[in-house]
Amino acid sequence: MPWTTQRKDAPSAKGSPEFPLAFLGAIAPSMATSIAASIAAAFVVACVPETPDAPPDEYSSVSLIAVGDTGLPWGFTPQLFEGQLAVGRAMQSEHARAPVDAFVLLGDNFYPTGLHANELFPRIVENLARPYCAFVDASDELADGLDPACANIKEPRPRFFAVLGNHDLDSPDSERLQRHEISRFVLNWDMPGDAGSRIRELAGGLSLIFLRSGYPWGKAEVEQLSADLTTAKGPWRVIVGHRPPIAGHPQLSRMVALASAQSERIVHAYLAGHVHVLAAIPGVGPAPALTVIAGSGAQAHRQLETEYRIEGPDFIANKLGFMRIDVLGKPPDDRLRVTLFQSPPSAVLTFLGNTILARYEIESDGTVSRRH
Fold it and tell me: Which of 187-190's residues contact partners 24+ apart within 8 Å by CB, and which partners?
């Protein structure tokens, strides 16, 4: 794929979160709880932060936010220590700044072994509604269990999509619960691909193709993906799957490339989690033009096992964060923008704001340019 580089200077830091966290981690838990409560009260960290003064920087016909590997059971003082809540608040802050049309979970929605029937409602509250309340269209029953700042949001919610990750398949009933039971409580929950279309069309010509990215990756899977790419209206085609087409998954990478070649359709981007980092990998074959990983929605660390191996990244960081996708401009001059954001490390530090770590623009012919 054509690849160019044009970078802007990184913005100045808004503050350093390392000191308060290191300090709080060194003191007694009871004192940490007290200080956390004081910080939260002082800065009035609500479910949805106030909209910053800065408006969207350019006309966008459609936008989405995506994040993966999120659903860890919460522990002590989640406002202070839970990465999922920190990233959730950061994404809601970005949504308040420039509203998005869709929100996407990239798999591993419920650790450690998927979703279980005896914990269905509490896990929906903890791992979906509380961290992502600005994106969740809650049923009356679910809304009753939420903080008023979440339950009383009046704005229409964006579309809410999700794919399954490997941990989501570690218990026999988890897939059924996620596909068919969550939507009783999260009314806009949509997990494509269960004996139905795997394609969701968004405004601005953005086609999302939802992929079950686990094994097998054989001839039948190539033909199915090729058919999906042909059916997708486009002109922008983006695959969404938990596992990324990286060096650690050569058969998956080959499947995507073959499907693109057979369908004669460009895959402009592949959005994934699985690796607990923020990363962007330029295409080395016909597809995808850019693989984007945001697998640090609750924890940030680069796993060492072979299946997580990434070769030739243009950008990679062990930071909590998420991605944003925008279709900018109007045809024939529209383009796809991909931005990787680092979130503050704690929900009580949301006021520090998000940091842009990397930004790319993709042309309709698959040319990728780095803009930050």
Answer: 187/137, 187/138, 187/139, 188/136, 188/137, 188/157, 188/158, 188/159, 188/160, 189/160, 189/162, 190/159, 190/160, 190/161, 190/162
4 bridge partner residues: 369
The ranges assigned to domains in the chain are 15-370
In angstroms, the Cα distances linking 346 to 165, 196, 342, 343, 369 are: 25, 39, 12, 8, 32
pLDDT in tens, 111-165: 999 999 999 999 999 999 999 999 999 999 998 878 776 766 767 899 999 999 9
> What pLDDT shows up at residue 259?
95
**Maximum Cα–Cα distance for the chain, whole Å?**
61
Q: Domain 15-370's class?
A: alpha beta
Predicted local distance difference test score (pLDDT) of residue 26? 38
Q: How many residues belong to the chain?
A: 372
Question: Model confidence at 16, in pLDDT bands (50, 70, 90)?
Answer: very low
CA 195 to chain centre: 24
pLDDT in tens, 203-260: 989 999 999 988 888 899 999 999 999 999 999 999 999 999 999 999 999 999 999 9
- Between CA 15 and CA 29 the distance in angstroms is 25
The answer to whether 89 and 124 have CB atoms below 8 angstroms apart is no
Query: Do 189 and 138 touch, CB atoms closer than 8 A?
Result: no
Peptide bond into 250 cis (omega under 30): no
Helix (H, G, I), strand (E, B) or coil at 217: coil
Locate tokens 């008023």: which residue? Answer: 148
Which of left, alpha, beta for 351 (phi over 0: left; psi -120 to 50: alpha)? alpha
Element (H, E) at 252: helix 250-263
